Amino acid sequence: MTTPVLTITGTGSYLPETRLDVADAAERYAGEADRILSTGYRTVCAEDTLYPADMALIAAQRALSAAGTKPEDLQLLLVTAIHRHGHKRLWSPASWLQSQLGCPQALPLTVNQGCNAQMLALDVASRFLAGSSGGSALVVAADQFASSGFDRFTADYGIVYGDGAAAAVLTSGPSGPGWRVLSTRTVSDPGLEGLHRADAPLPEHPELLDAEHDVRSAKRRFLSEHGADRLQRATRAAVNEIGRALLPDGDDPRLRRVVYPNLGLRLLEENYFPEFPGGEAKSLWDFGRTVGHLGSGDQIAGLDHLADEEFAAGDRVLLLGAGAGFTWTGMLLEHD
């Protein structure tokens, strides 16, 4: 009897053709230009027409087509985002996607767990399918910042946000074409959740909208209380733990790429590149700096981007996510 394996059998993405020039944008922010330019981004994706669900549907259809998977074969449908969906508060993006794709039998879940949400969802989907002799899960991430009060250039430190969607089909069954999941590792440090929490809850009033989108103020308060290097120390420790778990022998000649979050270059150089073999050379920074930080979709958008590269059987790629909470997730993949 063939032992079931987990494979990412297809990926798909939607990245808007419109790209905002970061240098041009920086000129519009008095006192912020140097900070914005120091992130290292060249352009970021901007979508003014489609909302997250619309982009998610396109990415999902592309992933299902690439995987050769029918919607009726899906057992699980996970949708992740870090920002607003543009619809009513109680609306369910996962259920809408279910309806549009035609997979009412799939278990629908909409996940809000920061920028690591899609990687966490893939981890959950892996565990969900692990005991199955056959079945598939669809994991979709989508975010759009263009039509909201969230300023993609100044809301956060060291990051410029881009719009887009990315989807992956994860399948349990006999080994076949795609990226076989060798191992995953998630590290959590809930002591860092305060990085994205205000001093106290506030009532919902229109005049407080700008404050709700101000990520910097929460980070300033937290780091002033706990030390400026608290996040960096936790990140380096978590990434190091993931590296030791997924690459116990250190540098692996089969490891072709490490897909990091599309953070600004300084954050990557200080927190991520030193912990994995190859550093920037094996990263997708040349891609990331043209699309921006895509909320929770960086890793699968990156893997989808790698479809244009040639890989041999046995070549490996490591996906690494990080997000508010704080959590970090690594997933080691091998090309079949």
Task: Write up what this structure looks like.
The mean pLDDT is 93. The protein has helices at residues 22-26, 33-37, 52-67, 93-101, 117-130, 209-212, 215-226, 230-246, 265-271, 285-291, 298-305, and strands at residues 5-14, 19-21, 43-45, 74-80, 107-111, 135-143, 164-173, 179-188, 255-259, 316-323, 327-335. It has eleven helices and eleven strands. Strands 5-4-6-7-1-8-11-10-9 form a nine-stranded mixed beta sheet, sandwiched between helices. Strands 2-3 form a two-stranded antiparallel ribbon.
Main beta-sheet annotation = 9 strands, mixed
Q: Note the run of SSEs as H and E.
A: EEHHEHEHEHEEEHHHEHHHEE
Number of helices: 11
| Percentage beta strand | 15-25%
Distance between the terminal alpha carbons, to the nearest Å? 20 Å
- Strands of the largest sheet, in order across it? 5-4-6-7-1-8-11-10-9
What fraction, in percent, of the residue positions are helical?
A: 25-40%
